[in-house]
Amino acid sequence: MARILSLTTLVTAAVFSAHVHAADKPAALTATQMLQQFNLVVSKDLTSTSHVQGRTFVGGNAVAQDFVQKPEKIAASNYAGVTVLGNFSGNNNDAHVDALGLYVAGSTTKVIVNKGDAFVEGSATNGSFQGNTWIGGTATSVNLNGAAYAGTLVSTNNNQQLADQTSTMVSNKAAATSTDFGAVMTGLSKQLSALQGSKDSSVSIDSATNSKVTFSGTADASGLLVFDLTKNNLDSSVFSSQITDFYFNLSGATTVIFNTNDKNLSLTANFENAVSNGSKFIWNFAGAESVTVGRTFGGQVLVADGTFSNINGANVEGGVYAKNVNEYGQIHIQAFTGVIPSAVPEPGTYAMLLGGLALMGLVARRRKQ
How confident is the model at residue 247 (pLDDT cuts 50, 70, 90)? Predict the structure, then answer.
């Protein structure tokens, strides 16, 4: 009997433990939370020679430069300042994480964490870590200036031992795999693509020069304005190399959606009020394989299944959410302040819905009789 009770106790303890660990893992982020908490999300690989002011997530490998320059503008999150599920290395120089710490599932090379806890599952080579640090593999030629643990030390100082992973490290690790960002981006892109263009929205190209585009419209009662650039091949005209300027006349708009579906798009136009518009614009490049901007661009840029590149030092005032990113200009945090709208059913869908409700009512009456 004692053995049976012992086994029962062990099973109960295991079940309780499983529930505790499941509860500790944060819920997956919604699309709105992703836009608010992250300045850059890359579901696969990142290559960068520039700066990202806000929080960054990379699902693959990152070869990059500088992150988290504006922590005071970043929303609270369970995620570290930088999360990389592959390997993380500096580009030509060291990569810097200036605040909110680091979580890397792979290994790091030439990475400097200036502030915040750092958790590296693999090995770390060169670089330095100023705060609490946990390196699961070998630390080679690394400066460990805070309390630290490393599986093996090679040419590395470790003046203060870290006995266990900190609560921040545990939280950052749990968050790192809690959200399938590729699925969130794809879902958001499809949801936005289903929106119909606002009745009052219009896109005009200056007939005299064919170089200036003006987006005009009046938002609905909720502040929403939708531009459908897929009609009449508008996206190809708007993103033509002949276009030099983007202007906006958006009365009462607090959320502005731009839907396109071209596979390859390039923009070299000047962007009016990129900073002030960045927090309320979403550019949904649905179906795009590549999107390239060569001038400052404003808004949240969504390329769910393609590659985004900002070249020639072009900055993005908003955020970037893409499958792959080549960043050769800065990404400045202008966190999304709008509201993601639900898709509105087509008129035919309403008829089907009403018919279904009528049928359900008929069945209910017959069951009651």
Answer: very high
Segments forming the whole domain that contains residue 322: 189-333
Tally of CA atoms within 13 A in the half-sphere of 231 that contains its CB: 11
Same-domain check for residues 209 and 162: no
Dihedral pair phi/psi, residue 4, rounded to 5°: -65, -45
Residue 174 and residue 194 share a domain: no
pTM (two decimals): 0.87
Do residues 56 and 74 make contact, with C-beta atoms less than 8 angstroms apart? no
Location of structure tokens 């693999």:
122
The residues with which 216 forms a beta bridge, in sequence order, are 202, 249
Task: Please state, for a pLDDT cut of 70, what percent of the chain lies above it.
Answer: 86
Which among 182, 146, 148 is positioned nearest to 162, based on CA atoms? 148
Phi, psi of 242 (to 5 degrees): -80, -20
Coil vs helix vs strand at 242: coil
Amino acid found at 130? Q
Any idea what DSSP says for residue 85? S
* pLDDT at res. 348: 43
Rounded to an integer, the average pLDDT of 164-169 is 97
Tens digit of each residue's pLDDT (9 = 90 or more) over 140-162: 999 999 999 999 999 999 989 99
364-368 mean pLDDT: 59
Q: Which of 136, 200, 132 is nearest to 160 (CA)?
A: 132
DSSP string covering 4-23: HHHHHHHHHHHHHHHHHHHH
For residues 139 and 206, membership in a common domain is answered with no
Q: What percent of the chain has pLDDT over 90?
A: 80
Helices and strands per DSSP (H, E), number in the chain: 7, 28
Residue 194 shares a structural domain with residue 290: yes
Residues 211/244, Cβ–Cβ less than 8 Å = yes
Q: Are 254 and 337 in contact (CB under 8 A)?
A: yes
- The SS3 of residue 327 is strand
Domain-terminating residue out of 159, 179, 199: 179
95-129 residue pLDDT tens = 999 999 999 999 999 999 999 999 999 999 999 99
Tokens found for residue 68: 């988290």
